[in-house]
Specification:
heterodimer, A: 458 residues, alpha+beta, Cytochrome Bc1 Complex, Chain A, domain 1, 2 domains, 6-stranded mixed β-sheet, 5-stranded mixed β-sheet, 42% helix, globular, B: 467 residues, 19 helices, 16% strand
């Protein structure tokens, strides 16, 4: 880790944390990235597959995430959940994550045991053979109930995304629609795995306390002979430009109203990404941020408010501003205050000190993110899938170049009413009788929006 | 560097059972070198230098957690901690926040159940300035009426928001039913009613009574030098002299009478269930044996029986696990899960059966070995991040584990036998005297307490007839 020496040079562009990275591409197309980090006697082994809900088809949503679960349910050699049991018996921790863009599996383990996840991950890439399919599908349905159906703000987020994206698969949630989840079959999963879990569609990133050359050799031996399946089909969908503002309402079991505003924005393939990142910092990073000062401290309208932007989305995604009301506050009044803050970004250039504060926050967070080898591995992996892990080193210098005029320009271009989807959560109370009889069924709370969108997307 | 927030993890139980793996040992001599010193004001200082990354983390634990809340003033510890973050006598809250954010640092005070922890994370180049801000809010806090009233209103609103979470509602009800009016019986943030009644005078009095450096522990890790840290703390962390009087341990709560069900009706898709009994304090010598038992029973993720039976084999829950919540005082031994309303009875029955099974038949050699290997082998993973290292150091001092804890721990775990595990299951699991809290759509869940009582009592035949 040479980060300390580098990060603090103004506009450091020539050197960085990735200087010590070693890479290799195996003959079957599997790319491997390794980085020595001797901070602690541990290693983080990460396998990424370039597949997420973005690659799914209408009617089969949630299959990427279901496969993530099934990857633990057995191979030709191992029984269900034996994967995790072996990792844990070696003192390791494992988990996996599915996003709209990719699926990641990781094991954090003592450096002496790194050969264990190497051999287990190679086994489940080559020998996928899940058992207990219907039980695991039921587990995923429980996960959806837990994360979305009983979480009003997450249910609102799902509806906002579904309204904002019409043609692009970011329309549906990563976990999938409940009805789709319940109809997925083992054959669906096996066919999907064949296509997307090939070495050519995967990426391995290892960070930790080891000898990089030795680890590269071990990985080549374990993964080198795995054969590729068919090439994944291209994902050509581009979301057309939004032609005017949209509004969705969600009636849901809750006490407090909430709102979420979403604007279509580009990802890091556009130079506008860095000014947008700064805009999100100015709006909501820290207790001196504009949304916190206005909506929480001064107007006392919301429990919390925030802005979110992720430039590492594979395709252009959303810039989101959201808030949860305090009891008795009118949602429209809080939206008006949030909009006034967004308008201020369009109408006035950000002051020099405020701009510098945002850059300083970025710089500190960048360093803090190196504190965990898992986070470091994730960062390398995500940037590599977007083009090159080396982009990590250009991150801060790109942030540093952003001017007040840039921030104003992107705010005027993207953070405008015609490009906006507003979602409003209308609480129906948390007691069953308050639901007017609607509380007993399945995920009927999405009915309004699905009906509305159904005509557009089918 | 915003990370995408719409990913979805395979298993969320980790947070639940991470509690138990607070400290476990490296198979080989590991890198964590801790220096222990005492400041002239009596505070104990632990420093672990780590120079590979230019950042610093400082955590200071005060004997000012929610267990210190006076009767009728639930939430006072939490509110006091929040108010301390609102600037100094010289800096307004807004000026303070501006200075913190401009350096990209994070500074805060928050009260947990046992201790309040004040601390910061900063870049190395800003450690001096950030430390000055932290000591400023501790030594000369603003504690202005207007800020206290503002934080009070925010807290009340946040409690209303939390109460929408079925899991939060279940936790609060479980704690209250189990611990009643004792120090662990109320929610750490208080209730909306109790917080609304707190006054600025209450906050200032709590601060003066419990933020005493003679009872504080300071953990520092990162790109620092121990001697320099000590010198600068001696200079800036002044006043707050004296110690906090010890707090008497509460009498243990009475055993539940049979299966004691507290059912809360909500419009939710899933029943949020917490079940359990009172458990042990951290200082209880059974702690290590109980950790091993708990790993096998329900704390060890996919290696545990509860996850195997309830999740993997029956598909009834995404998240299920058990926790030994060992605090300064005895906390709960709890099992937590969410399952669709209609499966609540089935899941509860399976869990009760597993309790009786581990009591009657104990565990296998391979389960015991697996638990030991994880508990001992995963120790180095605890030192991946500065915040975790700081927390580990605070634990060593507050729980009087000693600087050689890392060397002793594997021996303590290794010594546990199958007989010990079975004894722990018999001593601490009480299927026939169990508190069950469920926040559910009660019409759909139709929780059958008669049937469950029979399962709990081991009367399988009667239970089957009742189903």
């Amino acid at each position: 880790m040479f980060l300390g020496a580098v990060v603090f040079c103004a506009g450091a562009a020539s050197a960085g944390m990735t200087d010590a990275v070693k890479t290799e591409t195996l003959p079957n197309g599997l790319k491997v990235i390794v980085l020595e980090n001797h901070k602690a006697a541990v290693a983080s082994f990460n396998v990424f597959y370039r597949v997420g809900s973005r690659n799914e088809q209408f009617g089969k949503t949630g299959i990427s995430h279901l496969i993530e679960h099934l990857m633990f349910k057995g191979t030709k050699k191992l029984g269900p959940e034996e994967f995790s049991q072996i990792i844990q018996a070696n003192g390791g921790e494992d988990n996996a994550m599915t996003s709209a863009d990719y699926t990641e599996y990781f094991e954090n383990i003592n450096r002496d045991r790194l050969s264990v996840p190497i051999s287990l991950e190679s086994d489940r890439m080559a020998n996928f053979d899940p058992r207990e399919f219907t039980k695991e599908r039921a587990v995923v349905a429980e996960e959806r109930r837990l994360r979305t159906d009983d979480q009003p703000e997450d249910a609102l987020d799902e509806q906002v995304r579904a309204a904002a994206f019409v043609e692009h698969p970011y329309h549906w949630p990563v976990i999938g629609w409940m009805q789709d989840i319940q109809r997925l079959t083992l054959d669906d999963a096996k066919a999907y795995h064949q296509i997307y879990y090939s070495p050519q569609n995967a990426l391995i990133v290892v960070v930790g306390d080891f000898n990089a050359d030795q680890v590269l050799k071990q990985i080549a031996e374990a993964f080198g002979s795995i054969k590729n399946g068919p090439k994944p089909p291209p994902m050509p969908e581009v979301e057309p430009e939004q032609q005017g503002g949209k509004r969705v309402e969600l009636r849901h079991a809750a006490n407090l109203p909430a709102f979420e505003e979403a604007f279509h924005v580009p990802n890091l393939k556009s130079p506008d990404a860095f000014p947008l990142e700064i805009a999100s910092e100015i709006l909501s990073d820290g207790k001196s941020s504009r949304l916190y000062k206005k909506l929480v401290v001064e107007k006392r309208m919301v429990v919390s408010a925030g802005a979110g932007y992720d430039m590492t989305s594979f395709d252009p995604n959303l810039f989101v501003v959201s808030g949860q009301m305090r009891p008795g506050v009118k949602t429209e009044a809080a939206i008006a205050e949030a909009d006034a803050e967004i308008a201020a970004l369009r109408d006035h250039p950000v002051g020099a000190e405020e701009l510098q504060k945002a850059k300083n926050l970025e710089q500190a967070e960048f360093v803090f993110s190196q504190d965990s080898i898992l986070q470091e591995a994730m960062m390398l992996g995500v940037y590599e899938m977007l083009g090159s892990y080396k982009m990590v080193d250009r991150y801060l210098s790109n942030i540093d170049k952003v001017t007040a005029a840039d921030v104003q320009r992107v705010a005027r271009k993207y953070l405008v009413a015609d490009n906006r989807t507003v979602g409003v959560l209308i609480p129906t109370g948390v007691l069953p009788h308050q639901m007017g009889g609607g509380g007993a069924g399945g995920a009927v709370r999405h009915a309004e929006m699905i009906g509305e969108l159904g005509e557009v997307t089918r | 560097m915003n990370r995408r927030h719409y990913g979805t993890l395979r298993f969320a139980g980790a947070a639940l059972w991470a509690v138990m793996v607070i400290a476990i040992l490296a198979p080989r001599a590991h890198a964590l070198q801790i220096k222990r010193m005492t400041l002239s004001n009596g505070a104990v200082l632990l420093v672990s230098e780590e120079h590979k990354l230019p950042m610093v983390t400082v955590s200071i634990a005060f004997d000012a957690g929610a267990r210190r809340d006076p009767a009728g003033k639930a939430g006072l510890a939490a509110l006091t901690a929040r108010c301390l973050g609102q600037g100094t006598k010289e800096l307004s809250a807004a000026e303070f926040n501006q200075k913190v954010d401009f350096m990209g640092s994070s500074v805060g005070v928050s009260a947990g159940r046992d201790y309040a922890v004040a601390g910061f994370t900063s870049l190395e180049k800003y450690q001096g300035a950030t430390l000055a801000l932290l000591t400023g809010i501790l030594v000369e806090p603003g504690l202005r009426d207007s800020d206290i009233e503002r934080k009070r209103a925010e807290t009340v609103a946040e409690i209303h928001a939390q109460e929408e979470e079925p899991g939060y509602t279940a936790s609060v009800a479980f704690q209250k039913a189990l611990f009643g009016d004792t120090p662990y019986g109320h929610p750490q943030d208080g209730t909306a009613d109790s917080v609304a009644k707190l006054t600025p005078a209450d906050v200032r009095a709590f601060y003066h009574q419990y933020y005493k450096l003679g009872s504080a522990v300071i953990a520092v890790t990162g790109d620092v030098r121990a001697d320099e840290v000590k010198a600068s703390l001696e200079k800036s962390l002044t006043g707050l002299s004296g110690t906090v009087a010890p707090q008497a341990a509460p009498a243990p709560p009475p055993l539940a009478k049979g299966l004691d069900a507290k059912l809360i009706d909500r419009s939710v898709q899933q029943a949020n269930i917490i079940m359990g009994f009172d458990g042990i304090a951290r200082a209880n010598p059974d702690y290590y044996k109980l950790q091993v038992m708990n790993y096998i029973f329900g704390g060890g993720g996919f290696a545990s029986r509860l996850v195997k039976i309830v999740r993997s084999e029956n598909g009834l829950a995404y998240s299920i696990g058990s926790v030994v919540d060992a605090g300064k005082f005895p906390g709960a031994y709890g099992i937590r899960l969410q399952t669709k309303n209609a499966s609540a009875n089935e899941a509860l029955k399976l869990i009760l059966e597993q309790m009786r099974a581990i009591q009657q038949h104990g565990v296998t050699d391979s389960e015991l070995e697996g638990a030991k290997k994880f508990l001992i082998g995963s120790f180095p993973l605890k030192f991946d991040r500065q915040s975790a290292i700081a927390g580990f150091m605070l634990g060593i001092e507050l729980d009087r584990l000693g600087l050689d804890y890392a060397d002793r721990y594997p021996k303590l775990i290794q010594a546990v036998t199958r007989q010990d595990v079975q004894e722990m299951a018999r001593k601490y699991l009480h299927p026939d005297a169990i508190l069950v809290v469920a926040v559910a759509n009660l019409k759909d869940a139709a929780i059958n307490t008669t049937m469950l009582s029979q399962v709990a009592a081991g009367d399988a035949d009667a239970a089957r007839k009742k189903q």
